Amino acid sequence: MDWVHIVIVGCGRVGSGLGMGLSEQGQSVAVIDRNPKAFRRLPEDWSGTTVIGSGFDRDDLDRAGAREATALAAVTSGDNSNILTARIARETYEIPNVVARIYDPRRAQIYLRLGIPTVATVSWTIDQVRRRLVPGEVESEWTDSTGTLSLVERELPERWAGKRLADVSVPGDMTVVAVIRAGVARLDFADLVGQDGDVLHVMVTDKALDRMNTRLARTAEEAAGHAGAVSAPGWGTLPGAGTTDGAPDDTAVIAGVDADVSAADASAAGAPAGGGRA
């Protein structure tokens, strides 16, 4: 395995958990936090490096080995601090793998468009809680970092038997990516017709999830085992496809990002430091 050095900014629950897990895998790890008490979350025999300081202070980053780092995670409790840290890591230190934890999902999507990978904590948490509150409605196997794209598993309703599986897909909203038939995963389903017992793996946007649940839900008759000859509903174009649903124009939003970051940078001295708790 090639030598890897990873810098983690923020030693809260997420940062300390990352540090311990990566260290156990044999990675070289340095954790930055401005609060020395935060390092109590790390075990006494932890093999990594701890640096008391800020994630956007270059001297502190140098002490953490940022110039040799192959990856950096900014996981403090402050969006501005995390973004500033991520930008410095990318633009000053040219660290190839950088990710920032972001609480505001709208801001997370903006920075993703600028090429800064983010994990939107709020979106992810909402998705995970919703899955457990209504497991019959939302059974996402995977959700992207913005919480807007999910991979879900659905059993094919009986009314779709004999229908082309490719017709389940709706461009821009949902796409069947695999079919499990008789225990065998298949990707060559373009010309397949549905059979009883088929399980679909569907990539779907958050806006289309409710519609997909409705379309692929079993009817009362099917659930009771008395399905009749019910024709498959037409899919058509989902409402809002290809629109931003009133969201600000991307160009205008992205144009204001640098101003947002500059303002945060200017107030960094009085803002929560990059080494805040995760």
Q: How many individual β-strands?
A: 11
CATH class of the domain at 5-123 and 256-266: Alpha Beta
SSE class: alpha/beta
Largest sheet: 6 strands, parallel
Low-confidence stretches: 226-255, 267-275
Distance between the termini: 29 Å
Radius of gyration over alpha carbons?
Answer: 23 Å
CATH architecture verdict of the domain at 5-123 and 256-266: 3-Layer(aba) Sandwich
Tally of alpha and pi helices: 9
The 3D shape can be described as elongated
CATH-level-4 superfamily name of the domain at 5-123 and 256-266 = NAD(P)-binding Rossmann-like Domain
Widest β-sheet, arrangement of strands: 3-2-1-4-5-6
Give an account of the 3D structure.
The chain is of the alpha/beta class and 278 residues long. It has a domain of 130 residues: NAD(P)-binding Rossmann-like Domain (Rossmann fold), CATH 3.40.50. Helix content is 29%, strand content 21%. The strands form 2 sheets. Strands 3-2-1-4-5-6 form a 6-stranded parallel sheet, sandwiched between helices. Strands 7-8-11-9-10 form a 5-stranded antiparallel sheet, covered by helices on one side. The longest helix is centred in the N-terminal third of the chain and has 13 residues. The two termini are 29 Å apart. About 14% of the residues have low confidence.
Please give a quick description of this structure:
The chain has 278 residues and is α/β, with parallel strands linked by helices. It has helices spanning 13-24, 58-63, 79-91, 105-113, 121-133, 209-215, 220-223, 250-255, 257-266; strands spanning 5-9, 28-33, 49-52, 71-74, 97-102, 118-120, 140-143, 149-155, 174-181, 184-186, 199-205. The protein is elongated.
